[in-house]
Amino acid sequence: MVGELKGHSDTVYALKFSRDGEILASGIFFQGSMDNTVKLWDAVKAFEDLETDDFTTATGHINLPESSQDLLLGTYMTKSTPVIHLHFTRRNLLLAAGAYSSQ
User: Fold this and answer.
1) Which terminus of the chain faces fewer neighbouring Cβ atoms within 10 Å, N or C?
2) Mapped to the 3 state alphabet, what secondary structure does the chain carry?
3) SUPFAM superfamilies of this UniProt entry (predicted)?
4) Comparing C-alpha atoms, which of 57, 39, 44, 72 is closest to residue 3?
């Protein structure tokens, strides 16, 4: 593990960087989870100091800020749909796909 962004309540199965590399989108795929969200993270802020020696630990892990909330740009609810796939279009619009459930 290189670094950890804390925000979802379960395992993240969908990650995608925006085309310009400035935003990281994350979503979870877990039916029945209380999360059902897509979160947008500030990738530039998270990795801007990657080249400095004091940014990595002896194990090679990245020391992200204490609170991942500092990197969270937004949270978007998907009602009750788990996220299967994330995609940024050429115009940098985020598309999220999930499995439909009639429940």
Assistant:
1) C
2) CCCCCCCCCCCEEEEEECCCCCEEEEEECCCCCCCCEEEEEEHHHHHCCCCCHHHECCCCCECCCCCHHHCEEEEEECCCCCEEEEEECCCCCEEEEECCCCC
3) WD40 repeat-like
4) 57
Cβ burial, residue 68 (10 Å; 0-12/13-18/19+): middle
Mind listing the pLDDT tens digit for each residue in 31-52?
A: 544 567 888 988 888 776 554 5
Angstrom distance (rounded) from CA 91 to CA 15: 18
